[in-house]
Amino acid sequence: MTPRQIERFCAGLPAATRIVQWEGVAVFKVGGKMFCLVAPAAHSVGRVSFKSAPEHYEALSRSPGFRPAPYLARAKWVSVDDPAVLTDAEMKAYLRRAHAVIAAALPRRKQAELGLAGPVAAPRRT
């Protein structure tokens, strides 16, 4: 996928928003929390960076074409300098997973507001 295709895909994920920060980096968020960065060529954060599922971070960050994301590795993010090392299906799967990991960490009320989960039940009176 090209960076532009990646941006279009991320923008189409449920409740995703896009802003530009840090010298032209397109930042995709869900519920105000980042899940993907698409940077201009040769930017220090890598061409495409995204949140990894915590249980996959170690293996993924050591896989060919991947590296720990600068500034974000401690939060289990990885970078891909050349998105062409992945098939379109692989890239989409990683981006969907990044979105899902961040969305799942949002408070249930926020998930419900964004249409990412069922309605939150009213607190019980005891």
What features would you describe in this structure?
It is globular and about 40 Å long. It is of the alpha+beta class and 126 residues long. The longest helix has 18 residues, at 88-105. It has helices at residues 3-11, 57-61, 88-105, 108-113, and strands at 16-21, 25-30, 33-38, 48-51, 66-68, 77-80. The mean pLDDT is 88. The chain contains 4 helices and 6 strands. The protein has a single domain, classed as Aspartate Aminotransferase, domain 1 (Alpha-Beta Complex). Strands 1-2-3-4-6-5 form a 6-stranded antiparallel β-sheet.
Give the helix proportion (percent range).
Answer: 25-40%
Here the CATH topology equals Aspartate Aminotransferase, domain 1
- Strand content bin: 15-25%
- The poorly predicted ranges are none
Major beta sheet, strand line-up: 1-2-3-4-6-5
Count of the domains: 1
Q: How many individual helices?
A: 4
Shape: globular
Under CATH at level 1, the class stands as Alpha Beta
* Average pLDDT rating: 88
Measured on Cα atoms, how large is the radius of gyration?
15 Å
Give the biggest beta sheet.
6 strands, antiparallel
Second rung of CATH, namely the architecture = Alpha-Beta Complex
The helix/strand series, from N terminus to C terminus, equals: HEEEEHEEHH
Structural class: alpha+beta
Counting DSSP E segments of at least 2 residues, the number of strands comes to 6
Q: What is the terminal-to-terminal distance?
A: 54 Å
